[in-house]
Amino acid sequence: MTAPRGRNKALFLDRDGVVNVEKNYLHEVADFEFMEGIFPLCSRFQQLGFWIVVVTNQSGIAQGFYAESDYLELEKWMVGEFARRGVAISGSYHCPHHPEFTGDCDCRKPKPGMILEAGLELDLDLTRSVLLGDKERDLEAGRRAGIPRLGLVHGLTRLETVDFDGFPGTNPDDLPAILGDPSGWA
Ligand SMILES: [Mg+2]
Ligand SMILES: [Zn+2]
User: Fold this and answer.
1) CATH number at residue 115
2) Ion ligand 1 residues within 5 Å by Cβ
3) Ligand 1 geometric centre to CA of 36 (Å)
4) Could you tell me the distance, in angstroms and rounded to a whole number, from the CA of residue 121 to the centre of ligand 2?
5) Catalytic site residue 14?
6) What is the mean pLDDT of the chain?
7) Within-domain flag for 47
8) For the chain, is the Cβ count within 10 Å smaller at the N or the C terminus?
9) Nearest ligand for residue 139 CA
10) Which residue has the higher pLDDT, 2 or 52?
11) pLDDT tens for residues 8-40?
């Protein structure tokens, strides 16, 4: 499948470990802790014209740890918290599946399904988009979808550094300067 070449560019974010502190099978607002640095990062990318899109594996739904409605309620709250800080979440996609419980699907990362769906729905040019994840499977999903700028995030409670090809250990504050200049993008 070839990547759509739409009009918009996006900053794709994994949720757990990038937007919020990773906690096993998190599904309640009370346990949701935003990663330090995520709001200013999103603000700066938004100023550069990137649409902010969340793509998250939520196999806790398939495994019965929480209901899809719990997930959606938390998602709605999360989007509202971004909005209160001036950041628009243009799309939020989740995979509720787990291969052992629901069989194979096209959306569970490292599959690119959620990213490709977002690309079509939001008219994105994935070749001008950026993805941040905290696991190799996040980056693999981006790679398969045709996103060239893939960043591996380090830090347990705050965005400490991000590794990009050619830019290892980058301070998140420097990312917009490195990645935000569309003139440098093929
Ligand atoms: Mg994660
Ligand atoms: Zn899925």
Assistant:
1) 3.40.50.1000
2) 14, 16-17, 134
3) 15
4) 17
5) yes
6) 93
7) yes
8) C
9) 1
10) 52
11) 999 999 999 999 999 998 999 999 999 999 999
pLDDT of residue 179: 78
- Give DSSP secondary structure letters for the chain: -PPPB-SBEEEEE-TBTTTB---TT---GGG--BPBTHHHHHHHHHHTTEEEEEEEE-TTTTTTSS-HHHHHHHHHHHHHHHHHTT--EEEEEEE---HHHH---SSSTTS-HHHHHHHHHTTBBGGG-EEEESSHHHHHHHHHHT--EEEEEE-SSB--EEEETTEEEE-GGGHHHHH--GGG--
Asked if residue 169 is part of any domain, the answer here is: no
Domain assignment present for residue 48? The answer is yes
Give the pLDDT confidence of 91-121 residue by residue, as tens digits. 999 999 999 999 999 999 999 999 999 999 9
- Give residue 69's domain range: 9-132+145-150
Nearest listed ligand to the Cα of residue 98: 2
Report the separation in Å between the CA atom of 183 and the middle of ligand 1, taken as the mean of its atom positions: 30
**What's the gap in Å between 18 CA and the centre of ligand 1?**
6
In the chain, the number of structural domains is 1
Residue 155 lies in a domain: no
Ligand nearest to the CA of 153: 1
Rounded to the nearest angstrom, the distance between the alpha carbon of 107 and the centre of ligand 2 is 4
Please indicate whether residue 16 is annotated as part of the active site. Answer: yes
**Average pLDDT score over residue span 67-93:** 98
CA–centroid distance, residue 44 to ligand 2 (Å): 31
